Prior knowledge:
Chains A, B: InterPro entries: 6-PGluconate_DH-like_C_sf, NAD(P)-bd_dom_sf, PDH_C, PDH_N, Preph/Arog_dehydrog, Prephen_DH. Chains A, B: Its EC number is 1.3.1.12. Chains A, B: It is an enzyme of class 1 (oxidoreductase). Chains A, B: It comes from Caballeronia udeis. 2 copies of one chain form a homodimer. The first copy, chain A, is α/β, with parallel strands linked by helices. The first copy, chain A, folds into 2 domains: 8-184, NAD(P)-binding Rossmann-like Domain (Rossmann fold), CATH 3.40.50; 189-273, 6-phosphogluconate dehydrogenase C-terminal like domain (6-phosphogluconate dehydrogenase C-terminal fold), CATH 1.10.3660.10. Helix content of chain A is 54%, strand content 12%. Chain A is built from 12 helices and 9 strands. Chain A starts with 7 loop residues before the first strand and ends with a helix. Chains A and B meet through helix 7, helix 8, helix 9, helix 10 and helix 11 of A and helix 7, helix 8, helix 9, helix 10 and helix 11 of B.
Amino acid sequence: MAAFSFNKIVIFGVGLIGGSLARALRERAGATGEVVGVGRSIKSVERALELGLIDSAVSLEDDRAFELALRDADFVLVAAPVAQTEPLLRRIAPFLDARTILTDVGSTKNDVVAAARAALGDRVGQFVPGHPIAGRESSGPDAAIPDLYVDRNVVLCPLPENSPEVVERVADMWLATGASVHRMTAEQHDSVLASVSHLPHVLSFALVEMILQAPDAALKFSFAAGGFRDFTRIAASSPEMWRDVCIANRAALLTEIDAYTNVLARFRQAIETSDGAALEAAFERSRTARTEWQQGGAIKAADESAQ
Amino acid sequence: MAAFSFNKIVIFGVGLIGGSLARALRERAGATGEVVGVGRSIKSVERALELGLIDSAVSLEDDRAFELALRDADFVLVAAPVAQTEPLLRRIAPFLDARTILTDVGSTKNDVVAAARAALGDRVGQFVPGHPIAGRESSGPDAAIPDLYVDRNVVLCPLPENSPEVVERVADMWLATGASVHRMTAEQHDSVLASVSHLPHVLSFALVEMILQAPDAALKFSFAAGGFRDFTRIAASSPEMWRDVCIANRAALLTEIDAYTNVLARFRQAIETSDGAALEAAFERSRTARTEWQQGGAIKAADESAQ
């Protein structure tokens, strides 16, 4: 485990993601600094305080407390919905210490970079865009766990304005949670995530939507079984969050939808012409790749348990 | 549990599906009749005999043993891959007792009905097409379990030529395994399954195929996480089986692919025009339907444990 220490970290949004980081730093990494939780109202951070995730709770509505919270902070973590990034950074900017490092956890990065440039101007070098690829089905401060980031990937998308030291500090913070840290451009990140995360969500929502439109939808749902269950698990995800992700990552997602539509049209053609050889070859390629991917995950999990 | 007894049942293909039926009848329903397992070679049924799933093992290659096995059978269950249905029924036909009831477990039904008509001619009334909607990730006789069918749906697609008594006997057999039994036409069955099972498999295979075609496929796979895992679990299914299902259920599957492509095009349009309201409304409908479906499953499971 990488050594990591801090004096004060300010977390905007102390739910599953922000709360788990707080727990990971204190319980896994043994860091002793002050953790300040900030919420849109004091009510929204009270539960995190009750649970001991944070040392103090501050409301965005309380200007004086908010200013004090930011004073001398080593880190500011923005763990609020992506659409709030720009207004939050604008609120933070006037009180931002020159030594404070900011980072975020948003699922899309091009839009976050644009928001950070707009809100922070020539101080954007203090902001390191980040995305921990981790989650659980439950949300909120009660869902926060210290091990959420163990063996998960965290992507950092450093800006040309970031100094190596600033990026290193953010990387060290995530390494201390048990995650592995990768660097890529915001464009690469958004393209990769569009492919392996955003597109599958859209496809899963679309299957349920299609069945709902059928006149015999109830009959169809009543005979859905395990394959449907797994395929549509992500269709129970937050509509607001996925609306925002789809729009924030529009360009990359449209590219992926078009590539997918082409593959599906090719499969359709093979089915229509009863081209069993083409279907079997494609299904075999998929099975092999999926199985290898899963085994890679299994090997990783085995390493973890040996630690 | 429905009372059910038999003197002799002959099972073609004693793997997960056929073997689990044998175990369910004996271990759950307490039926005491003889279970004969038939395989393409004696080797393929030896393991089922070792495991005690069957009382005797017969090879299709041994004409005399095969003829004896069919004599006085109450039931013949065809639990072999769908494409083998017609040749198997042709092999059975010359030795078929007038009192023997045949049924199958195929994932598609229109093609099975056509195969049965072609192979059995005017004795097709002895054949009741069926499909237990159950499975496990593992296969073969070692995977057979007595509880595979508990609280699962079994669909029967009776033919006009079936007498009510014949259909009732097959229904009683499945009820004795703990399943619930539903009747619909082969057309209805194939349409429903195309929608909630066959299409999701095609869509899942297509996502992996699309990523494989990307120049940065390895990078993409390395950042795939939980959503991808669930969505593509069924992309590790048997390529041969799904090739056959796609072709056997071609007409219904093409209809579903076209309906799906339309929904996806509508989603694409909403993303391209940043129509957040349309996206959120559709995602919300999907989440609600998916959540209700899941809860229905939970209620069913609760009923089971109360029995």
